[in-house]
Amino acid sequence: MSSPMTLNKKVLRVPQKMNRDWKLSVMHVCDYCGGYRATLPDGEGGSICPTCCDSRYASDLKSVFELALEQLVAAEKRIAELEARTVKLPTPYPKGYGLAADKYNFALEECADAIRAAGVAVEGKI
Ligand SMILES: [Zn+2]
Description:
Blueprint: E1 26-29, E2 36-41, E3 47-48, H1 50-83, E4 86-88, H2 99-117, E5 121-123
């Protein structure tokens, strides 16, 4: 059984598409595709065309989607592990052992009911 997992929600933040004013574009060689196109500064000292800008955004989205999928698969695995848990309680006393044994058995039944209510299977007949 693996340890409890936590989702890394920081890496799952949907990237925001940069709002660019393409009316300010200039004809220049795009540093990403090499085409001579209308470009804007890419914020990293280069020039980028609208197609490459969209491609970068799609790539960012794909990365976040892949991380989300990876975490979803891990979460499904963890849920399956949790749902497969069982608890083995002590053996109840046979009937006729007296009041103390009856109270003990009743407490065991209460424990078994509470454990089952939490979604965990109880081994044996309680
Ligand atoms: Zn380009």
